[in-house]
Amino acid sequence: MNRPSPDPAAVRSALPVAAQVPNLLTYLRMALVPVVAGLLLWGTDAARLSALGLFIVAAITDFLDGWLARAWRQQSALGRMLDPIADKVLVAGVLLVLAAHGDIAAPHIWAALIILAREVLVSGLREFLGQLRVSVPVTWLAKFKTAVQMTAIGFLIAGPAGEPLLPGTVIIGLAGLWLAAALTLYTGFDYFRAGLKHVLDEDEAP
After folding, report:
1. How many CB atoms lie within 10 A of CB 186?
2. End-to-end CA gap in the chain
C-alpha cells in the first residue's frame, strides 16, 4: 500500500525550530571566516591547526545546510540567497589571507586569482539570470571542483604545521590549488556558455 507524501505545510509546522537550522548553519559558516582568518594571521602551529579544524566545520556546513533544507523541505528565498554568498566569503576570505600571509605566493597566486575571478563571474551571471527566472543547474564536475578546492585550501591552512603529521602538506595544497584552478576554468566556461545562451535569447526576444 502506497503511503501519501507528507504535506509540506504539515512538515514545516512540525519543525518550528528545525526550520531555522539550515539558515543557522549558513550564518555559522560566515561567522567562522574572520575566526579562521585571525588564527591564520596569528601564525603559530596551534593556531593553524585550530584554523584547519574550524575550516573543516565550515566546509561541512556547506553540505549540511542545503541537504537539511531539502530533506526537511525548508528551502527558502533567504537560504538560496545566503548560501552562495557564504560559500564565496569563505573561499575568498581564506584565499586572500593565505596570500597576504605568504602561504600562496608567486606563481601560485595565479591559481588563487583564477578561482576568485570565476566566483565573481558566476555571481554576476547568477544575478542576471535570476532576473530572467532562469536557473543553471550545478554539474557533478562543479561539485568535484568544489571538493578539490576545499581540500586544497585545507592543506594550505595546515601549511608548515601539518608537515610533521603529513610530509608534503604544502606541496599537496599547492598542487590541489592548481587542479582546482584548472577545473574552475573549465566549469566557469561551461557555466558562462550556458548563461550566454540565455543572454542572447533575451536580446533576440521581441
Report:
1. 12
2. 51
Q: What is the pLDDT of residues 103-130, one digit of tens each?
A: 999 899 999 999 999 888 877 777 666 6
List the domain boundaries for the chain. 11-204
Give me 184's grid cell.
Answer: 574552475
**Which class for 203: exposed (0-12), middle (13-18), buried (19 or more C-beta within 10 A)?**
exposed
pTM of the model: 0.81
Please check whether residue 194 is in contact with residue 136, taking contact to mean a CB–CB distance below 8 angstroms.
yes
- Using CA atoms, how far apart are residues 101 and 120, in angstroms rounded to an integer? 23
User: How far, in whole angstroms, is CA 137 from its chain's centroid?
Assistant: 15
Tell me 163's DSSP state. T
- Using the predicted structure, report yes or no on whether residue 89 has a pLDDT greater than 60: yes
In this structure, are residues 86 and 47 in contact, taking their beta carbons and an 8 Å threshold?
no
Q: What percentage of the chain carries pLDDT values higher than 70?
A: 75
Q: Measure the CA angle with vertex 7, ends 5 and 10; round to 5°.
A: 135
Q: Cα–Cα–Cα angle for 65, 35, 97, nearest 5°?
A: 100
Tell me: domain 11-204, CATH 3.50.50.60, correct? no
pLDDT digits (tens, 9 = 90+) for 165-201: 999 999 999 999 999 999 999 888 877 777 777 666 6
DSSP string, 24-70: HHHHHHHHHHHHHHHHHHH--HHHHHHHHHHHHHHHHHHHHHHHHHH
Q: Which three cell numbers stand for residue 149?
A: 578546492
Concatenated DSSP letters of 2-21? PPPPPPHHHHHHH-TTGGGH
